[in-house]
């Protein structure tokens, strides 16, 4: 591992500079320069969430602290429109009223913060992590579990905290899973009090239709879950919040290598969890999962060693070390008849932010679309990788020196018939030119590079998760 660069002062935090620097303006623009061509059969919206702080807060800044901002490009009949908006959360409104920061970040004591999420962490729920589409709305979610905030998919206006007609008590994690075949949404919530996790389902009608307590040995920090046609898979991974630090008002996490990774298989509408044990690791993101014979197969991006000890012990070095991510495609097989677990790597490239064709989540996939992590000391994606899980073959597009991509979901073309019959869409930010574009790739020929590039009116800061919403999904939920 290369040495970790340490910034000399708080204001040199690299996550506030260059390609990460927040943008102040909310822009709507349809007059955009196109290089190449925007395919006419690409119709829908690419949305990407990420941290973008509005006001500087006292103390140290962590990349995850920024206020949520969604950047979106709406493609229609060969034309593109760009728009970016802050997610107007309850905390964002409070700070806007006062014209200054009221919350500290995760690296500071939250004791004086006005309010937090229902975990009692006292941290600002910024909804800055993922965006998903369910029942005509985009839901913006937060990595530590928060209120999902509903946004209009075209105007990006914040509709408000989504409580599913008053039926959602508690919070929702960052990566709820939509089954497009049934219209259901699957989620979990976790916190510092026993039983530490709750699993639930939102019905196609938009209300909570099932909740089950999931008992864990202690508080955990799960990030994602998997879904198959009949089951959900929940995770109890040995990355723990340090409870002594928590009592002292500090947020600190540690990896306990002596504990197993545990995967809990629960029927979609069940309450009995069957646990499968595997080698210790951490998993941010699931690629996809499905049933095959007696087995559940689950592909993930697995982090073998989530605790990178910084060489210099400063808070900033600790954050930079924590954000160093070494993840590889990895497959688990859980045998529901025998209880056996098989696990092993699929590939050795450092890949994260995976996605598959959203129409087949929870059913077998062949292709996944992944971002390659650069070896820089901050988190950056230097290539887009299509991985063929049936052959292990990879198709790679490198963005080029000083150019960084963002999560690139599959965007089916109009009338699409399969997993590569469409496009991949990604923001690409050029650190030398200090500007961004949205790039469109043919999913069947990723290595050929973008078929079209749309130059954007402002830089899109490097951020977190993205989604694609098809035109037919927008049309089925008229606003
Ligand atoms: Fe995530």
Would you write up a description of this structure?
Keywords: Dioxygenase, Iron, Metal-binding, Oxidoreductase. It comes from Kibdelosporangium banguiense. One of its GO terms (molecular function) is dioxygenase activity. The protein is mostly beta strands and 479 residues long. The protein has a single domain (10-475), classed as 7 Propeller (Methylamine Dehydrogenase, Chain H), CATH 2.130.10. It is 6% helix and 39% strand. It contains four helices and 33 strands. It has helices at residues 90-98, 243-247, 315-322, 471-475, and strands at 28-29, 34-36, 44-51, 68-76, 79-86, 130-134, 137-141, 149-151, 158-161, 177-179, 184-190, 196-202, 208-215, 226-227, 231-236, 239-241, 253-255, 261-267, 274-278, 282-292, 295-303, 327-335, 341-345, 351-355, 367-373, 381-388, 394-398, 403-405, 410-412, 422-430, 435-442, 452-455, 466-470. Strands 2, 28, 29, 30, 31 and 32 form a six-stranded antiparallel sheet that branches. The protein has a five-stranded antiparallel sheet with strand order 1-5-4-3-33. A four-stranded antiparallel sheet has the order 6-7-8-9, with no helix packed on it. The longest helix has 9 residues, at 90-98. The chain is globular and about 55 Å long. Residues 1-11 have low confidence and may be disordered.
